[in-house]
Amino acid sequence: MKYLGNVVNAYKIIANDYLKPGMTVIDATCGNGNDALFLKQKITHSGRLYAIDIQNDAIESTRALLKTNGYDEDENLVLKQCSHETFDFLKSEEVDFIIYNLGYLPKGDKSIVTHFDTTLKSLNSAMYHLKHGGLIFILCYRGHEEGAEEFIHMNSFLANLSQSEFDVLKMAFTNQKNTPPLMWIVERK
C-alpha cells in the first residue's frame, strides 16, 4: 500500500492518530461502509458511530459490512437513511469527529450526488455539534459537474470561517491528473 497515494489514505493516516475508543463520530455519507468500518474499529464498541446516507443501498451495504466484521446495530451503532442536511437526531449531543465524502456512491447511481446547498447546511449543523478540539474531514470528489460546483462553494465557505473559532487545512495532490479529489480538515478550537 502506498503511504499517501490519495486523499483517503491521507485522511486515514491523520484520523488513525486522532480517533480513540469511546469517541462519538459521524459518517455523514456512509456510501459502501468502508469509512464506517474504519471509524468503528478505531472507536471500538464503547464509541458511538452514526452512519447516515440518503440512499437505502448505501445503508444496506454499510450494515452488511459492519455486521460481517462483528458490529451489530445498538445504541452505539446507529444507521440512518436520511439526508446529511441536519443532524437533528443528535439533539444536544456533541461529537468528536465527522467525515463527508462528497460526490456520488461508488458503483452506484451517478445521477444521485451531494449538492453544495445541503452540504453547507450540514456543515453548519456539524459545527454546532462538534466538540472543541473535534475534527471534520471533507473529501471532495470534484471531477464531475456537480462536484466542481460543490468544490467552489465549499472552498469559499471554509476559507471564510472565523480563524478564532476554527482552523481549516486544505490538502490536494497537485501532480495527479483528471481533477483528483481534495480534502479539507476543520478543527474547532
TrEMBL record:
Listed GO biological process terms: methylation
Supply the SUPFAM superfamilies for this chain. S-adenosyl-L-methionine-dependent methyltransferases
Q: Which UniProt keywords apply?
A: Methyltransferase, Transferase
Q: Which domain of life is it from?
A: Bacteria
Protein's name in the database: Methyltransferase domain-containing protein
Which InterPro entries is this protein grouped with?
A: MnmM_MeTrfase, SAM-dependent_MTases_sf
Entry GO MF terms: methyltransferase activity
Task: Tell me which CDD domains the record gives.
Answer: AdoMet_MTases (cd02440)
